[in-house]
Amino acid sequence: MKIEKIEPMDIERESFRIITEELKDRAIDPEQAPIVKRVIHTSADFDYADTLYFSENAVKLALDALRSGALIVTDTQMALAGINKRAASKLGCETVCFMADEDVAKRARDEGVTRARVSMDKAKERGDNVIFAIGNAPTALIRLREHIDAGYRPKLIIGVPVGFVNVVASKELIIESGVPCIVARGRKGGSNIAACIMNALLYMLDETRGAAK
Amino acid sequence: MKIEKIEPMDIERESFRIITEELKDRAIDPEQAPIVKRVIHTSADFDYADTLYFSENAVKLALDALRSGALIVTDTQMALAGINKRAASKLGCETVCFMADEDVAKRARDEGVTRARVSMDKAKERGDNVIFAIGNAPTALIRLREHIDAGYRPKLIIGVPVGFVNVVASKELIIESGVPCIVARGRKGGSNIAACIMNALLYMLDETRGAAK
Fold first, then answer.
1. Nearest-CA residue of chain B relative to A13?
2. 8 A C-beta contact, residue B213 and residue B34
3. With the C-alpha atoms ordered A48, A51, A56, A62, is the resulting torsion angle positive or negative?
4. pLDDT at position A71, please?
5. Which residues pair with B53 in a beta bridge?
6. Beta carbons of A27 and A3 less than 8 angstroms apart
7. Which residues of B touch A9 (CB under 8 A)?
8. Who is most buried in A51, A69, A140, B25, counting CB within 10 A?
9. How do B130-134 and A71-74 pair as beta strands?
């Protein structure tokens, strides 16, 4: 097996070319394609071409929120680490994760609930101009749905936890919530996928980036 | 679809029970099983039961290195964020990523190579008692193989980059290198998988953790 000679700058472009080629018989909404392809780029898993669900106008609404400097909230330090902070801060978007906060840990212990659940409560205090990038905890999505049922209206929920317990059902709760969302149906997802979807959205607004699409 | 009531503490145990059940007809080496299962736990992707390659005694050699306080080097901030630093530091293992270092960025620019490649050079200066957790950059693996061919002998290489360009071939270079390794053959992998394999190894040595296996 041979190593191809390729310039660092060209690796991403060539990867997207291969992905586009392998997807070629699939009908993918052009607005959604940069996200679907970037998720496949991050996972090498073409299942996402089938499982990624976009609520109506999700991409447009997400871009509007980013342009207005929405707060980006993750449920893991890993997702936080994976989001391109330079691209976010150019738009005036702050990126935060409350999972390691002492007050969150304490309340979770006291109440016997997950820190992810308490993190969502803390995020909600920051208002409605929030995009959630949830790649790990079904309990985060379950809590968000409770808040939505009580009137909360965040700008977008990226709902892509991975796993085996309450993962599939928690994602459906978000799809049925009426709030704009991008969800990976089924068991698959992860913090890397959450960060990747967030970055795909950010790159759509970053003119300095020869955005691979 | 219903949300199951389950205590936060029990979610991981129940997830591993489901994974074990779904794997039940597969023969998995008992020493490797905690790693294979944790990778499936992180990805919900049973393909890894087929694609994870372990060199002879890789797990035993990795645990020996961790007990001796090996340096853990990643090729992304995301993998670094995903590694359980508390478990690592209990063993005296430092965890580092050189990708954002200014000297690395400068050399990469000057030489027209990837920062991942330069990071590997920087890690090598720290000696042989190193475990590499590489979840992103084929160029990191290619560079490590060059160093190995010149006599470098790190303790373990976790070789799980994801992607479409040189990914498959770079992993085979590591498998054929003769250095202890755990590799996800094929296109799949990722920073989350690198961190997850590292954590599975750390948890094998963490007696305070009722390690889900």
1. B165
2. yes
3. negative
4. 98
5. B183
6. no
7. none
8. A140
9. unpaired
Q: Note the ipTM here.
A: 0.91
Nearest to A50 by CA among A25, A75, A18: A25
Of A170, A186, A190, the CB nearest to B3: A170
| Closest partner CB to B8 (pick from A114, A167, A168) | A114
Mean pLDDT on A116-136: 98
Average of pLDDT values for A28-32? 95
Chain B nearest CA to A153, separation (Å): 22
* Model pLDDT, residue B50: 96
pLDDT at B213: 44
Q: What digits encode the pLDDT tens for the residues A63-106?
A: 999 999 999 999 999 999 999 999 999 999 999 999 999 999 99
Backbone angles phi, psi at B182, to 5 degrees: -125, 120
Cα distances from A200 to residues A37, A82, A132, A143, in angstroms, run 9, 12, 14, 26
Average pLDDT over residues B86-102: 97
Closest Cα in chain B, distance from residue A54 (Å): 20
Is the Cβ pair A169, B11 closer than 8 Å?
no
Cross-chain residue pair A164–B44, CB shorter than 8 Å: yes
The pTM (predicted TM-score) of the whole model is: 0.94
Q: Are strands A130-134 and A71-74 parallel, antiparallel or unpaired?
A: parallel
